[in-house]
Design goal:
The protein is mainly alpha-helical. Helix content is 63%, strand content 0%. α3 packs antiparallel against α4 and α4 packs antiparallel against α9. The longest helix is centred in the last third of the chain and has 41 residues.
């Protein structure tokens, strides 16, 4: 190592590989831009809502979730961008540590979700029921629920009667809404050959029994449909999980390689500084 260092002092030799440096920089730059777009979309979606609904359902607001993920990704990739470009060990270590923590959290969540599937199902049920309650409070949430009910062919959390918990759809005598005892249109059975779409097909169906309601709407809840979909698409979900893990592992690997190269470069500079007055230098 000493001979190699002595021979490199006369040139511009550096242990820091340009390929590693700029690959890591471009890698982080791409995700940094994606993070900015996510934050911008989340902020736009949030400020475009009515003022009275701003604090209505923070726990189920897709815009808030998008902003939170975007801000976290922005901070992490910012450390990676600046750290790689400036060859800063501290920023690269922060970037690497955060990626390792996120990877471990994802892995732990997957394992715990598999082991404690009943508790995970109960938590999902709680989130869906909360989303049903706030259906009309948030346009983004409403569109998300409608999309899920159409795609999975379901209605409500465990059954179509879950819409009883929404203030606009419940059957209490105090409810003066036109949607009293109804379900959203996304629950309806829609035929492709239907010329005229009846958006009120779910009107009053909470007063019907399952067999009568099943002629017009999906009566099964979305939780069972979601569980069935997960069981039948395990390979697809595994591929998605792998696709999320690979960029993280690549970032960890590149940052560790560059950290080691920077440290070797610092050792080389210290060595040259200590021996710059030697006759053979």
């Amino acid at each position: 190592m000493a001979n190699r260092r002595r021979g490199a002092t006369d040139g511009d030799f550096s242990y820091v590989s340009r390929v590693v440096k700029y690959t890591l920089f471009l890698f982080n730059m791409i995700f940094w831009v994606i993070a900015l777009v996510m934050v911008a979309i989340g902020v736009y979606a949030r400020v475009s809502k009515h003022a009275e609904t701003v604090m209505a359902s923070l726990s189920v607001d897709p815009a808030m979730l998008l902003m939170a993920v975007g801000v976290l990704m922005f901070l992490i990739t910012f450390c990676g961008c600046v750290g790689s470009l400036r060859e800063n060990i501290c920023l690269l270590q922060i970037f690497c540590v955060f990626l390792i923590l996120i990877f471990l959290l994802q892995l732990t969540a997957g394992i715990l979700g598999f082991i404690f599937s009943d508790k995970a199902r109960a938590k999902v049920t709680e989130l869906i029921n909360d989303a049903v309650i706030h259906y009309r409070d948030d346009l983004d949430l409403q569109n998300l629920i409608d999309y899920g009910q159409r795609e999975f062919g379901c209605c409500g959390g465990t059954a179509f009667t879950d819409w009883q918990h929404n203030v606009y759809f419940n059957c209490t005598p105090e409810n003066r809404s036109r949607e009293r005892c109804s379900v959203p249109y996304s629950c309806c059975l829609v035929s492709k050959d239907q010329a005229v779409i009846n958006t009120m097909c779910g009107s009053g169906l909470q007063l019907q029994n399952f067999l009568e309601a099943a002629e017009l709407i999906h009566t099964n809840g979305c939780i069972d449909k979601l569980v069935d979909w997960i069981h039948s698409n395990l390979f697809l979900l595994g591929g998605v999980a792998l696709g999320l893990a690979i960029p993280q592992l690549v970032g960890i690997m590149l940052s560790q390689i560059m950290i080691n190269q920077i440290r070797e470069q610092i050792d080389l500079q210290n060595y040259n500084h200590r021996h710059q007055s030697d006759p053979w230098h």
